[in-house]
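INFO worker-7 received task bundle
INFO bundle size: 2
INFO processing item 0
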Amino acid sequence: MLNLFITNEKLQLFVMIPVLLGAFYVAWRIICTGTDTPRMNMNRSRPRIAACIALTALGTICLAYIFLSHLEFQIKDASLNRILVWISGIYVSFFLYFLLVLTATDILCLILRHKGNRKMPARLFKIVSAGMAVLLTVTGVMHARSIQTRHYDLTAEKTLSAPIRIVEVSDLHMGSVVGTAHVQRVVDAVNACRPDLVVFLGDQFNRTGAEDVVDAEAMFESLSHIRAKLGVYAVLGNHDPELNSEIYQKFLLESDITALDNGVLEIIPGSKVRRTEIRTLINASSKGSEAVAAPKTSVDGAIFLAGRTKLAVDAERVPLTKLLDEAGVMHGFDSGAKAGGKKPRAAGSGPDRNDYYLMVLDHDPEGIAEAASCGADLVLAGHTHRGQYFPATVISRFLYGKGFSYGLARTPDENTGHITTSIVSSGAGYFQIPIRVGTDSEIVCVDLRFDSHK
């Protein structure tokens, strides 16, 4: 419910009210006396008061542009828009941390004064607050540009035809703040992992209209150099254009990426005795299921890769059960079966549920529960950014819960005991404000193996 509140575009504007009040508070504190408790000193020089008013006005404009550009009200010139978003984002970051530290020092002043310390170094506290805000902003901008690689080693409960290395890239957000240099850093980090399979988990673009993309051709050219033996696939996120839009089709073509939009693939990892095979069982358009499923198979050790699209709360989102049914993939277990049991929930001519590994790509971690109910073995997701910067990191964990805001979690099915593993990435890019504080820009490298002694 809280997630619905936060993501509603009209209510996001409401968030500006306390933020603007904070801007006025900062301006008021700047023109307060230098000692004792904060109080207005109207004897300050007029130029200083005017400067504070101008600072508040600048902050208000920057805050407004950050919000309005997110709601797709922005200057149409992409280069100018990028400059304005960067200036606004850095200012908002400075303002946020200045406000937090200044408020903390004011509370400290009040506590010390209550204990009898009448003269407080308020001016020093303001200098320290400004210095810490600058430090956090500068380090946050620099840290956001550094790509970390998070490794996970997973052991499949089912036999695979061969081990496989998967690299997950989520929330790249090409556009206002993420440009060619950052995309190249991501490509270099991905190739350094020597992946078998690369998956992009949505929000490749910063905005659904994609008008804020600068140097799109150069970014797509960089992405085309990703090397993966089993290919590169992408699902759509809530910030991406429609699949059939010109910019998204250009992205797929020039980046050499295949969309898995409401689609299911069968992947048989190659080994010494079996060559690699990839078959598209079903691949739907953004308007619904239009492709016809390929003939069903029952190859042991296969991986079925299901790509989801749209947010979990979207009424138009195709149910995962329907997607798997149309692809001829068995899903779920009989209510009497336990984890690893041999009873499929429904009869059919598809492969036995225990003979293959079901992996779900979903931009939204809210879809993990649905995937778990279908007996998915692994879910890869993004969307949350892990909050991207403090204190949003705390809010993100509260909204999604531990394990579903970030990192690895294991979700057991209440009826069967089957355990679904999920990994939520903090994202390779960043949204609107070009900083990361308390989180990393990352790609996720998953080594999926099986226990050959079982």
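INFO item 0 finished
INFO processing item 1
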Amino acid sequence: MSRGSRVFFSCCYWAFVVYVFVPLVLMVVMGFKDSKFIGFPIRSWTLEWYLGVFKDAEVLSVFGYSIAIAVLATLGSIVVGTWIALLLDGRRFLGRTVIFALAILPALVPGIISAIAFRIYARLLGIEPGMFAIIWAHAIHNVPFVVLIVMARLSTLARSQTEAARDLGADPLVTFLRITLPYLTPAILGASIFCLLLSFDDFVRSFFLGSYQPTLPVLIFAELRSGMSPEINAIATVALVLTAAMGIWAERITRRMNRSNEQ
């Protein structure tokens, strides 16, 4: 690669970094502004808005509600997605392509269409808007990502390991628990964190299937209708820090597990 090409791609890379991170930095900084209005210059700084997030019972309740939904939806999607991945892995049977396509379909449907469909189907099934309806919709939407991540991990599993376990007398359940599941654990953990963040951040399905108790994205949307304020920036920054910390933690744990499996 020529020097000119390296300079060009380097400029493109740093332009992308600026495009992504500058708005985030501005969001964090505006949370320290000692004024109810967003904009420059910032004449004085305060921690009032950030401290208010942890003192506001409604905001803390919404955080807890959103985390509970994300955790339960993630558990459901992990169980279903892993089961589908194991069903499809290395097997050729009639209807396999159809099952795979149906498993991936929720990730391909536009969010607004998916939310409307879930709302209609929930009413048909008699499911009232609320926590269970949101968990149900989030779990179904997250299943395709679990299937793809777990199947990618399964494709690297040496068949000789499972065959050796069966030759030594292990039944399929013991083989899964002793060989397959430990090997899949990094992928399952990575898929769990990914689904957790997707669910925590999901606005459209939460808006259409929610009741009077809002999730965090719905609360932020409701607050935005009265205009931007440092309080909204503070709430969004706290959510950003939490999700970033979870992502970094998951990345470190996944790398450790991969190294231990390789050894």
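INFO item 1 finished
INFO post-check item 1: The chain has eleven helices and no strands.
INFO post-check item 1: The mean pLDDT is 83.
INFO worker-7 idle
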